[in-house]
Amino acid sequence: MSRLAIYDMDRTVTRNATYTPFLLHAARMRAPWRLALAPAVVGSMAAYGLKAIDRSRLKEINHRLMLGAALSDEELSPVVEAFAERTLRGNIQPGAVRAIAADRAEGRRLVLATASYALYAKSIAERLGFDDVIATRSVRAADGRLIARIDGENCYGPAKKRMIGAWLAEQGLAADGAEVRFYSDHHSDAPVFEWAGEAVAVNPSRQLRALAEARGWRIEDWR
How many structural domains comprise the chain? Predict the structure, then answer.
């Protein structure tokens, strides 16, 4: 039987969210003039709040505003590496470091499953010792450049569970034959919590705390 430890990233492994900080970091490094487009970013977030667009479209709009329409790996690499180093220096939960070490010592396969973009989540995961990453992917143009469009689903809510299931199938692992410990801070991950054999609510949101208490899931403070 495969023994897995699956972790959400933002506000679970990290203290704070990474999505908007990454966009601003990328704009500052590559094209500071794009910071003048911040009001448009705020506008897109307002449109999302009003349900005029969904999360996937929100990400695509803000990706284009802050990073541009298309970027090569060579252009992105220094931006991503600098952001990953910055994240490791000041945005990792102390409890996450301990949990990752404990799961590794138990022989579990460490998987990061996050709605954040794979383009930077992978670099953070590598530094923390994760074996695999399931994250929101970006479409590549014919010339190999990443473009401001999501490839498949945004790895959030029910989509995260579907993407974990697809990953298990790709790895030749049976979904019902894996021993899974899952960590997250947010109730949007309820589908994965309900599926996992062992659910751990980390610094939970109010709604997740209520759900965890009702289900008898373990609650931990990693701050």
Answer: 1
